[in-house]
Amino acid sequence: MLKKLMLILNPVAGKGKSPDCLAAVSRIFYRAGYIPSVFYSSGSGSVTQLVLDYAKDFDCVVCVGGDGTLSETVSGLAQLPKPPALGYIPQGTANDVASTLRLPRNPIAAAEAIIAGKPYPLDVGRFNLNDYFTYIAAFGAFTEVSYETPREVKQTFGQLGYILTAMSHLPSVTDYAVRIETDDELIDDRLIFGSVSNSTSVAGLLKLTENEVSLDDGLFEVLLIQTPSNLSELNSIISNVMSRTFSGSKVKLLRSRKIKFTFDRPVKWTRDGETGGAHESVLLENIHTPLRIIK
User: Is residue 262 within 8 Å of 281, Cβ to Cβ?
Assistant: First the structure.
């Protein structure tokens, strides 16, 4: 008996070539015993609504797009009591989740990997009770890069576009007075960057090792970077981060299921590479859902 597959496509992801693979990908799924029904993203938030409206009627959901498309898909599935298994065909620029899961970047190979793969549990992050994220929520230095980098720069220069834009932000790095409440400690500090993640790769700029990250352990990796007092300390911080050395005097990596950040003024956040709004207080929780991703 043929199974039903919900195929969600973001037509503008990456270099805008996602629709080019539609026929070949659909053929692969059909030959494997699935009847694909195609749904197109029509703007911010549309994918989440599509999932909430229709996913319950399918045996599997596969999204074709970048990290933002995946994030919206996960946001919808996380709100369903019995979500179908999730497959991901990465077609974005950074593709951080694909890097973490070691998914093929070629859409044909990715579709074949979904057919041959198995579903594994995936932790989901909840942001201030009503929003969700798949792999990162962050504030501070470089976090604006992912959504301030123009789409044409992302599409033309790819990863280099992120790096060039990040470099242009260096002269304007600001810091934030913040209180951080984790499962185990209370921290009052001044930071230029903070991230709460469940990924080994963050916009291609920050890297964690597989030994440091488990996608289903119920814990987030929390990276905190203190304010440098001079340019030499800033250079040392950048060097530590790029070399994955998270034990310097200004860089701290910890783990927690729940984290609360309280600032003295509204601070801009990103969620999975997209704008997350400005907040004085942010509560981030690692929630266990029945969600499974195929890899």
Answer: yes
In degrees rounded to 5, what are phi and psi of residue 90? -70, 125
pLDDT at 157 over 50: no
Instruction: Give the pLDDT mean for 56-77.
Output: 94
Tell me the CATH class for 131-287: mainly beta
pTM here is 0.81
Task: Give the span between the Cα atoms of 60 and 37, in whole angstroms.
Answer: 11
What pLDDT, in 10s, does the model give residues 178-210?
999 999 999 999 998 898 988 766 655 556 665
Q: How many CB atoms lie within 10 A of CB 222?
A: 20
Q: Supply the pLDDT for residue 227.
A: 86
Share of the chain above pLDDT 70, in %: 79
The CATH number assigned to the domain with range 3-117 reads: 3.40.50.10330
- DSSP string over the chain: -PEEEEEEE-TTSTTT-GGGGHHHHHHHHHHTTEEEEEEE--STTHHHHHHHHHGGG-SEEEEEE-HHHHHHHHHHHTTSSSPPEEEEEE-SSS-HHHHHHT--SSHHHHHHHHHH--EEE--EEEETTTEEESSEEEEETTTTHHHHS-HHHHHHHTHHHHHHHHHHHGGG---EEEEEE-SS-EEEEEEEEEEEES-SEETTTEE--TTT--TTSS-EEEEEEEPPSSHHHHHHHHHHHHTT-TTSTTEEEEEESEEEEEEEEEEEEEETTEEEEEEEEEEEEEE--S-EEE-
Q: Is the pLDDT assigned to residue 75 strictly greater than 60?
A: yes
Q: Where are the domains of the chain?
A: 3-117, 131-287
Of 135-144, 249-258, 267-276, give the lowest mean pLDDT range.
Answer: 135-144
